[in-house]
Structure formats: structure tokens, C-alpha cells
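Review form for a predicted model. The reviewer records the input and the model, then writes brief findings.
Reviewer: anonymous (R2)
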Amino acid sequence: MPPHSPEEAPRPSTLRDLPRAAWISARASTPNTPLAVLSVPIYAFSIVPMTLRGGLYLDASRTGTVLFARRRPILDGVVVGLVTAAAFALWVAGILLFDTMLVLLLGMLAYAALLIGAVIALVQPGGTTLSASGPETPKGERWMVAALAQLPGTRMTAVMLARRLIEQAPPGSILVAAAATDALHERYVRAGFTAGRARRVYRLVPPRTQRNPAM
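Model under review:
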């Protein structure tokens, strides 16, 4: 984790907060409540790697969420693979130990729920997953700001949380993000980020303690 003052820096959430964060993300991206419920599993699955690395944050009101951690795509991919393999192993063990048809049915229902959730997440505004860095991103230690989401009816909770996290970025690092919407992309640019392709943005953190205003 980046160096920070414990009195000021947000504290990372744990796996216990994963359902809440997934619900916030689903509800923020999906205006229809029943569809949001169906898409919760895929959102939870997608943020597991960052959660395990201490990169999941909820604001004090627990209505806004942000992912913020050093970008490690290979490690995150390995975590996703391990979680998938573990789930498959449990499914096979269940088939061997319990009623085969019942376990097969439960597995198919779980797969269908994930598939439906993925489709819902993809078709909703801001639901696509974009790469946070590209050829235009400077080389160096990259820290990713991602998955800003807040419950409907709340105001600026995710943005304010992201602002506090950005202020804690290590000196000399590179902040990267992929805005889900044009409005969020414009907000990043106004906060001092440099625009890239496909709504990607980046910002160089000064090597000294002096910082530019955050979002």
C-alpha cells in the first residue's frame, strides 16, 4: 500500500464487504433493480482479485466504492484462474459426494446466473470493462483507479473517495484509469489527467511531496 497518514487515508475493505461493493456497482450501472440483482455475481467475481490485494474501498457512508491498487494484470488473472478452478473443483466434488443431478442443476444455474449478469453488465451504460493503460501510457509503476460507483440518490461519494485515494498515490508513480462514460472522462481530464485512446487517462504523480489538486 502507498505511504499515507492513517488518520487521513481510507482503509481498504475486505471480502466481507465484497457483496456490498458488488451491489453498489451493479445498482450504479443497472437502473432496473431486478436486473441489478442478477448482475451482482459477475460484479463480485470481477472485483475479487483487487479485493484480495487490498484494493477495494468503500466510503464512510457505504454508498460509494472505488478500486485503487498497483496495476498487476498478470497476478489478477492468476487469481481469477485460481478462483475459477476452486469453484470447478468444488462442483466436481459435489457431484461425486452428493446427488449428481441436483449438483449438476445447481452448477448450471450458477453458470447461467453469471452469464446473465455478464450480459447485463455489458449492455448497460458504463458496464464494459476497459483496459486502463495502452501504448500512450508512460512506463513506470502504475496505480489503477477503477470501478467508481455509487448508489442512486447519493452525490459524489465515489468521486470524493477516489480523490482521497489519489492523494495517497506514491510519489513518482503513474495513475491510470479507463472512464466508463464520457462525463467521467471529462472529470478525469479536469482533475489533471491526460486523455488517451478509448477513454483511457493517466497522470504522473510528482516525485516530491507537492501534488496537484485531485478529482
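Findings: Strands lie at 56-58, 64-70, 142-150, 174-178, 194-195, 200-204.
Further findings: The two ends are 20 Å apart (CA to CA).
Recommendation: see findings above.
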